[in-house]
Amino acid sequence: MARKLPHKDVVVIGLGWTGSILANELTDAGLDVVAIERGPWRDTATDFLISYAQDELRYRIQHELFLRPSQMSVTFRNNSKETALPVRTWGAFMLGNGAGGAGVHWNAETWRFLPTDFTVRSHLTQRYGANFLPQDMTIQDWGITYDQLEPHYDEFEYLCGTSGQAGNLNGSIQAGGNPFEGPRSRPYPTPPMKQGYGHALFAQAAKELGYKPFPQPSGNLSQSYTNPLAVTLGQCTYCGFCEWFGCANYSKATPQTTVLPVLLRKPNFEARTECEVMRINLDSTGKRATGVTYVDTSGEEFEQPADLVLLCAFSLFNVQLLLLSGIGKAYDPTTGQGQIGRNFTHQTVSSAIGFFDKDKYNFNPFIAAGAIGTCIDEFNGDNFDHGPAGFVGGGYIGEVQTNGRPIESTPVPPGTPAWGSKWKQALRDNYLSTIVGGSCHGSMCSYRDVYLDLDPTYKDRFGRPLMRITIDFHDNELKMSAFLTDKYAEILQKMGAKQIVKKPRKGPYDVTQYQTSHLNGGAIMGTDPGNSALNMYLQSWDVPNLFVQGASAFPQNAGYNPTGTVGALALWSAHAIRSQYLKNPGPLVHA
Amino acid sequence: MRSRSTWLFGTVAGIALATSAVPAGAAGIDKQNFEQVERGHYLAIAGDCAACHTLPGSNHALAGGRPIETPFGMLLAPNITPDPQTGIGAWTDQEFVNALTKGTGRHGTRLYPAMPYTYYTKLTRDDALAIRAYLTSIPAVHNPVKSNQLPFPFDMRWTLAVWDKLYFTPGTFHPDPKESAQWNRGAYLVEGPGHCGMCHTPKNFLGADEASQRFQGYALQGWFAPNITDAARRGLGGWSVADIVAYLQTGHNKTSAATGLMSETLNLSTSKMSDADLQAIAVYLKGPSGQQQTAAADPADPPAQGVMKSGAQIYADECSACHASDGKGAAGLFPSLSGSPVVQQTDPTSVLHVVLRGALSVGTKPAPTAPAMPQFGWILNDDQVAAVATYIRNSWGNSAPAVSADNVGKTRRMLVERSD
Amino acid sequence: MSQLNRRQLLASSAIVILLGSPAARAAIIRGGLPWKPGAADPPTLVTPNGWHFFTPQETATVEAFVDRLIPADDLSPGGKDCGCAVYIDRQLAGPYGRFDGYYMSGPFQKGTKQQGPQSPVTPARHYRKALAAFDKACSDKFGGKVFTALSDAQRDEAIKGLEDGSLKLDGTDSKEFFKLVLKDTQNGFLADPIYGGNRNMASWKMIGFPGTHYDYRGWVDRHNQRVTLPTISIAEHPNWSG
Q: Do B321 and A248 touch (CB under 8 A)?
């Protein structure tokens, strides 16, 4: 029998990026907020010590900072004809855990989506005609515009101290920035990072080919910075142990380095770590959340009543909790009915390896950071004419190599023996003179047959069904990937590579191959309950005192890393809660 | 922005309304005199009563029971809420004033100088009564505390008569007519309620202040409270008045961060004091009058080349990613080692403490980041700690005695005994 | 003297363990950043104190195996002298060997390649079984000689047999075993020496990786220049001896 706890105004499920941002906003509004986080507390000087943070085996290979599949995993299959099997150890994506969530070990690549990304279906239909889109492609407009979100992109970037070069200032294109980006109201808070040799060589070659390269927007700060919450971050030192790792010197924008010091000082905030939410509780009408039930590490159950529930548990687990709590209707791919689990997407990434003459080129790959690099955006979104291309979508292309870690980043040319002296020699001959970290960071459209639901067989340690992922690539994405990869290879050629190995994404979708942790959809936002789970403020259509944050709201994925948009949506949602919902609790949109 | 006095008034008004029954003997107190209670509350903050008399994390302010570490053993701070049986509710005003200014408790028993009466003696009678008024206004808490936990022979209070005779000069503060009102206010605060010398003045073997070395630093509880005279290198000579105010108010200034024992003083006391009072304290500490300059003790020999070379490598590998290759750190985040008084104290205990165990800096509303230094005790042996400490104490214009591996070993063992 | 002191109760963190039974470990955090003096979870450094997992026969086999995968030459010492067998031994004796953290609930069923590993056989059990099977297979193929009794050329032939699947192992898959040993050997060769392999940072020196430096601000602009910093690892800093 769950022990009932004293009432709180707000319960936040998960203390990652969105949980931290929302908790901070609502404590500012004077509410009593509790955050329930199933992982441990983590912080810089106690967990990411400079004397041992640079441990590739521990953090990159053995996944120490991530969620353990033994605590929670998912099942996977390519299509409905297969039996989904558990992901017993992570591969295709790495899931966060603990205070800060994935915001601790992310690269900190901080992008905005394009204005056309938010109206993608109507835009593409208008430009190319309705028949241009495959029948089973279920992309849709978001129900929000870039202009509405712009102030919150700005807010998130200034919270993080994002380092970059503006490309479009209030409509005026700026040299050195991304000429395709949506207009921004002011420059980035800090200047771009320094670039390594490989990144700079890419920029030069890209320019020679007629592109407009620009530095990747980075949450690894180019200089020390104090954000609007009066929290100070440090200057990135290009250590090369960034993504998958915790930052030892306060120079990566994370919840710990931007929000939590302020949040934890507040008397009206409390975090409970190593407590796992079992379900969101509803009243007898099923239309009102009454709080959550959670367990601590002894397995004892607690009921935490609250007036407002914020689901900030990461996209996959948001969807899982909605389904386990009986909120909304589960998606059925055969009928197309039900919103919860629909329009799941990942990212379509590919690369090419450029081998260079070791006597002429030394890239020092170990001098790097998670979001360092130079990119071009000519082939993202609808920035180019897709008519002849035969696909929709696109992505940025960049030399964004983040590390020279020996286990991960010691590429050898094809045909090199897998072991022996020749293997060693190839390692030695290519380590310093190879660019293996390029990225064609392609979008993924949503499809009728790519979705999330509850697994019928496999359970978590509490006996709850795991989330089942059904996903495979469609021709559209594979064509796009080949196209982008070719473009990148041309640039590598121009840079002077002596051998280029193209690695376009090929199907079937493989859950063992890492392809970013950008999992989206399943509880998407939209204009009415017939096409979405959430309204434009991320408020549940079904349960108005429940808001669901994170990339689960994306109706499809764009050709960029999602966190900038996740942060912007969280701030947009927070402001709507403060300025509208709290004054008059109830549905904010009447569809 | 709300001024400090408005904040205090608002808070005190709330407390005053929760007052319990009038304790006996509170003749000099006017229960309805909010100004007096408010003034007393502020003085209690300046005097940092809560640091000893409130159990951390407790909802019962000033109800005592908190262990006080002394060189002679443990005491438990008494309950100073107005509870008549277990607090000071039954005391007369004069008994209370005597406790603060004469070091005597109820019925004339002597207090241990862990209670800083040797400093509080400077309080004017008005101020002492204001504190009384405040303490009368807070909720009474029934909490019996047996203060005297000292081992024999220190548990014999009568021995304090001798100690007082030798080391205690009672008497209220007398302003110096040659100095400004601001300086005198600072003097009153520092020498009186602030009792800064309690930690910052060296003590003799009986735990009394070495008056001739006032504010020149003292080793206690695993730290070395640094020299706060205006001395050039090891004191506050390199800090402006604004630097001192920023430090006391926010816990940080552009080169330094408060940590360790000073965190509590900041949280409970100085960060809540008025701008004017903090300015006055800074002016007093910076002023040459009444302060003794340290004869900066230059190291007998320059540190060995091998040690400096070794220290430089350790620094480059483990320290420079935060404190930078020029030792200047990052303003408001990583303290500047270059020019740091703490780094250059003759007694290196604080530096060694921070390196061996790490340190969390204080977080305040204006400066909430609270960056922490990680610990290096697990990876650096005594020789290596000695080398890097010697290196930072003698680089970038710094100069301080070299640190020996022996010293590091002693400090390491001492810290292991401590859980704080 | 009592350990209880004034500062012990000074919570610069405000972690209070409450809610639930004493067995509960959930932490409640409020009032400030949790912190304890000396807080850290440093890695356990592998020391050469015998073998924690392998039997003497297994040790000899694995040492010989890693010495062929990474032969001694002018680029680096061989896998054995680099400590790769020690690395694997310690890994198998620890969480890695047990699949700690893996999702290990059944039912276990074979899936597609894209669905990833589905075997309940932990690395520790895998090695134990496969090493024995490997010796038997060698014995069968090479006239009664187990792996350690073979010449270098024969050892390479046996390993290639695992690699292409032509050398069959009783009750276990040759290719899977080979992939496992190769991955573990190369990880041991390239990982930080604290794990027992990569002795003296041999592989890092070979490829030109300067190791665990954290501050490259003085180098990031020096394009196409060789970094001349000393090679260091988490626990090895030869440059620290004045």
A: yes
Q: Which residue has the tokens 């104190």?
A: C49
- Pairing type for strands A33-37 and A8-13 reads parallel
Rounded to whole angstroms, the Cα distance separating C85 from A181 reads 53
Q: At A462, list the tokens.
A: 């509490």
- The stretches of B181-340 forming alpha helices (DSSP H) are 181-191, 197-200, 241-250, 261-268, 275-286, 305-314, 320-323
Structure tokens at C117: 């590993």
| Closest by CA position to A211, among listed A483, A396, A443 | A396
CB-nearest partner of A427 from C15, C21, C207: C207
Per-residue CA distances from A23 to A13, A15, A269, C9 (Å): 10, 9, 8, 29
CATH topology of domain A3-127+139-217+238-508+519-581: FAD/NAD(P)-binding domain (3.50.50)
Of A51, A85, A87, the CB nearest to C109: A85
User: Chain C residues with CB inside 8 Å of A298's CB?
Assistant: 20-21, 23-25
Please list, in sequence order, all residues whose beta carbon lies within 8 angstroms of the beta carbon of residue C168, skipping any fewer than 6 positions away.
C137, C174
What domain count does chain C have? 1
Q: What are phi and psi of A420, to 5 degrees?
A: 95, -175
Q: How would you classify the pairing of strands A465-470 and A451-459?
A: antiparallel
Q: Which fold has domain B181-286?
A: Cytochrome Bc1 Complex; Chain D, domain 2 (1.10.760)
In DSSP terms, C184 is beta-bridged to: none
Mark yes or no for CB contact A230/B373 under 8 Å.
no
CA C114 to CA A82: how far, in whole Å?
Answer: 12
Question: In DSSP terms, which residues pair with A252 in a beta bridge?
Answer: A220
Q: Which residue of A has its CA nearest to C214?
A: A239
The residue extents of the domains of chain B are 4-167, 181-286, 305-416
The token pair that represents A473 in the structure block:
């690539």
The superfamily CATH assigns to domain B305-416 is: Cytochrome c-like domain (1.10.760.10)
CB contact, 8 Å: A51 with chain C?
A: yes
Kindly state whether C237 is in contact with chain B, defined as any CB-CB distance less than 8 angstroms. Answer: yes
Q: Which residue of B has its CA nearest to C234?
A: B379
Q: What ranges do the domains of chain A cover?
A: 3-127+139-217+238-508+519-581
- Let me know: does A412 contact A430? Beta carbons within 8 Å: yes
Listed residue (C188, C178, C228) closest to C208, CA to CA: C228
Cα–Cα distances in angstroms (integers) from residue A271 to residues A39, A160, B65, in the given order = 11, 22, 28
Please say whether the beta carbons of B355 and B380 come within 8 A.
yes
- Note down pLDDT in tens along chain A; length 591 residues: 789 999 999 999 999 999 999 999 999 999 999 999 999 999 999 999 999 999 999 999 999 999 999 999 999 999 999 999 999 999 999 999 999 999 999 999 999 999 999 999 999 999 999 999 999 999 999 999 999 999 999 999 999 999 999 999 999 999 999 999 999 999 999 999 999 999 999 999 999 999 999 999 999 999 999 999 999 999 999 999 999 999 999 999 999 999 999 999 999 999 999 999 999 999 999 999 999 999 999 889 999 999 999 999 999 999 999 999 999 999 999 999 999 999 999 999 999 999 999 999 999 999 999 999 999 999 999 999 999 999 999 999 999 999 999 999 999 999 999 999 999 999 999 999 999 999 999 999 999 999 999 999 999 999 999 999 999 999 999 999 999 999 999 999 999 999 999 999 999 999 999 999 999 999 999 999 999 999 999 999 999 999 999 999 999 999 999 999 999 999 999 999 999 999 999 999 997
Angstrom distance (rounded) from CA B235 to CA B245:
15
Q: Which residues are within 8 A (CB) of C60 and not within 5 positions of it... i.e. 6 or more apart?
A: C148
Cβ contact (<8 Å) for B374 and C40?
yes
